[in-house]
Amino acid sequence: MVNAVRHIHGLNESAFSTATGNEIHGNKVRDLITKFFYRDSHLCFHILLQVDGGETVFFQEFTDYAEYKEAFIGLQQARLKNNIIIAPKKNLATNTIVAKLA
Fold it and tell me: Is residue 24 part of a domain?
């Protein structure tokens, strides 16, 4: 008997065009966290996965609430069904902009 594995992809192609993802089993995700913030007067959403061991992994950024909600529901289902979740290998901290002060 073959087990079907449904992959949930968290790669935002515009931000992570060259990144391949880490595979996380749904049962390893302890919590789903949403970070709400404004960027240039636009509301944005980050979905973060808190996995076994306490590590927090960036999943994807959204500017559209409907897309965010669809992905969040998909992640909830992936947790329940123990599906594979693909998260970007790049850490969120490596994508932050650092200003150099003179």
Answer: yes
Q: Going by DSSP bridges, is the β-strand pair 7-9/42-51 parallel, antiparallel, or unpaired?
A: unpaired
Cα separation, 61 vs 44, in Å, equals: 7
- For 54, the domain range is 7-90
Identify the CA nearest to 88 among candidates 6, 4, 9. Answer: 9
Rounded to 5 degrees, φ, ψ at 65 are -65, -40
Distances (CA, A) of 27 to 7, 45, 73, 82: 14, 23, 15, 5
38 in a domain, yes or no? yes
Task: Read off the pLDDT of residues 5-41 as tens digits, 9 standing for 90 and up.
Answer: 444 545 443 333 334 578 899 999 999 999 999 999 9
Q: Per residue in 67-97, pLDDT tens? A: 999 999 999 999 999 999 998 876 544 344 3
Give domain status of residue 2, yes or no: no
Query: How many domains is the chain built from?
Result: 1
